[in-house]
Amino acid sequence: MKILTRYLAREIYSSIGLVFATLIMLFAFLDFIHELSVMGYGQYSLGFVVLFVVLTIPGHLYELFPVAVLVGTIFALVQMAARSELTIFRASGASTGQMLGALGKIALPMIIASFICGEVLAPPSERMAQKLRLKAMNSQMSLQAFRSGVWVKDGGNFVNVKSVMPDTSLLDIEIYNFDETFHLKTIISAKHANFLEPGKWQLGEVSETRFSKGGVGRSTVQSQEWQSALTPEILSVMLVVPEQMSAYDLYTYASHLKENKQQSARYEIAMWNKLVYPFALLVMMVLALPFASYQRRAGGVSILIFMGIVLGMVFHFSGRLLASLGALNSWQPLFSATAMTGVFLLLGLILLWKVERR
């Protein structure tokens, strides 16, 4: 089985590499075409466009891993079946269980590579790409699709931030402080804020309005320290969508939301999805194995490759759809993140069972 595993690994890895190269070139080209529509804003020149596209490649690598593994494995196994190599392996005593074991060993390095890509490479690369784009276009980023900016609950305060700069400094901040009976005590307005250290910000051009039984008081200072649990990492979550963040950042932000009794379902689903997603590669290999039993006369390699692409796309987009539905309907995050992987695993096992019965 060691010889079989090594031979399978060589064939499958080369096929997956070919599929990866094709998909990455396609998605990079589409990104390039999209960015050309905004090229010329500020200093966003062709060089920045190319750099932006290059920085988004790790994110595409992570997203396309299951599709590439499924299509590449199908292509390799079907080609081996067409050359009667798999028939020879089976005739020499290799069972379906041994084939699955070999595929599991082959999948392990790719699972590790996918996890590293999703946790270490893609999140900072995507964040760097967004910051580069913002700086080059001389723009500031609105944190939410509200005219008033984003609202954050921070302990007993409600914080409104109009915009965040690429270096995560804040512009136009308002801090509303309430007492235990939910009566408004103070409103602190600042033109800008810079992060000093965990738990501490430096507010600039500050005006404070105080409400009491005796009336309303107002004061202004040039600068003032602000004690807050908010950090640049929490605020930078707005620069990258949850699906492109690391599991650790998602856990941190979801915990922050839950501590302040806010909805965290989307970030919890994304966190579980990041932990489960690499193991979908093994599921894709299990699903690919039954395709090796189909001969060329049953429809041709191209038909099987097309079916693999369709299944990969269905897995990718239905997984995202289920995650969105889970966030909207407050489904259990672990279920929303793993349901499609479970469905495809069941589909692969059913196809294997049917093949074994023939």
Summary of the model, kept short:
With 358 residues, the chain is an alpha+beta fold. It has helices at residues 2-36, 46-82, 85-91, 96-136, 232-235, 247-259, 265-276, 280-288, 301-329, 333-357, and strands at 141-142, 150-154, 157-164, 170-178, 184-197, 200-212, 215-227.
Characteristic key phrases:
alpha+beta, 358 residues, 10 helices, elongated, lipopolysaccharide transport protein A fold, 7-stranded antiparallel β-sheet
Give the total of domains. 2
What is the percent of helical residues?
55-70%
The SSE string, one letter per element, is HHHHEEEEEEEHHHHHH
Query: Overall 3D geometry?
Result: elongated
Uncertain regions spanning at least 5 consecutive residues:
140-145
Mean of all residue-level pLDDT scores: 84
Give the count of helical stretches.
10
What gap, in angstroms, lies between the N and C termini?
24 Å
Helix-strand category = alpha+beta
- Please tally the β strands and state the result: 7
Q: Cα-atom Rg, whole angstroms? A: 26 Å
Largest sheet: 7 strands, antiparallel
Proportion of β residues? 15-25%
